[in-house]
Amino acid sequence: MATDDEANHPSSSVLSVVKTTGENAGMSEAPSISQAERDELRRHGILLTSMEELYNWGRSHSVWPLQFGLACCAIEMIAASMARFDIARFGSEVFRPSPRQADLLIVSGTVTKKMAPQVVRLWNQMPEPKYCIAMGACAISGGPFKQGYNVLKGIDRFIPVDIYIPGCPPRPEALLNGLIALQEKIRGQKISGPDAPRHLQRDDKCEYPIPEFGARDLEPPSNPEVWQAPTIVRKE
Ligand code: SF4
User: Fold this and answer.
1) Cα–Cα distance between 116 and 157 in angstroms, integer?
2) For site-directed labelling of 27, which of 162, 164, 167, 187 has its Cα 20 to 30 A away?
3) What is the distance in A from the centroid of ligand 1 to the CA of 101?
4) Ligand 1 neighbours by CB, cut-off 6 Å
């Protein structure tokens, strides 16, 4: 029962909703509460959250990229960390010189077939949870060098890519937009169950096969576990 004072308090109606839904749902289930009700509680200094939200919030705002670039797109990546664009606003200004301390690989530039094994090796040396942004047309598909004999047609042939940023080159704002998209992806992740991300799955291998620079091409030319050639259906 609420007293008169409590009933007249602006937050009492919201609190009663929480209590009611909690009783209806039973002790074993978390009470359901809408975003509007949460916002109302927040206005009165009450913050409701879950372990999952707290965990994802912390990770999404401390994504540390590897200090690594491949070609002209890397100049745009560097510009994103300077004062004008200030990637520090998103908690990602700490570019790490060692893959052991980084959790974001920004593939910024042309991936030649000679360089691809080193990119996969760097990815393998990064600890989980880790994420990959393919920045620019070259990293996504080979870009203007797609028909070249020496350029990989997309880094997603060897490692899983979380965010693709098109452009030649994408501007620093596009990288920041990609980083925000990655943060949203991290905040939406489950920390248990079948929908949990790769690093929380028991059978996750964490490491990916490193291709070798063979006589004519990379061997193998792609990792079938992360990439399959799209099927082209021709209409008669
Ligand atoms: S996408 Fe364009 S700007 Fe970026 S590395 Fe390739 S050629 Fe350079």
Assistant:
1) 10
2) 187
3) 27
4) 71-73, 109-110, 136-138, 143-144, 168-169
Q: What is the pTM of this model?
A: 0.80
Cβ-based neighbour number of residue 38 at 10 Å: 16
pLDDT in tens, the chain (236 residues): 344 444 444 444 444 444 444 444 444 455 678 888 888 998 999 988 888 889 999 999 999 999 999 999 999 999 999 999 999 999 999 999 999 999 999 999 999 999 999 999 999 999 989 999 999 999 999 999 998 899 999 999 999 999 999 999 999 999 999 999 999 999 998 888 777 888 777 777 778 999 998 888 899 999 998 898 888 888 87
Which amino acid appears at position 140 of this protein? I
So where are the chain's domains?
4-49, 73-190
CA of 139 to the centre of ligand 1 (A): 8
- Residue in 68, 70, 72, 171 to alter for ligand 1 test, most ligand atoms within 8 A of Cβ: 72
Pocket test for ligand 1, best of 145, 168, 175 (most atoms within 8 A of CB): 168
Pairing, β 212-213 against β 218-219: antiparallel
Greatest C-alpha distance within the chain: 84
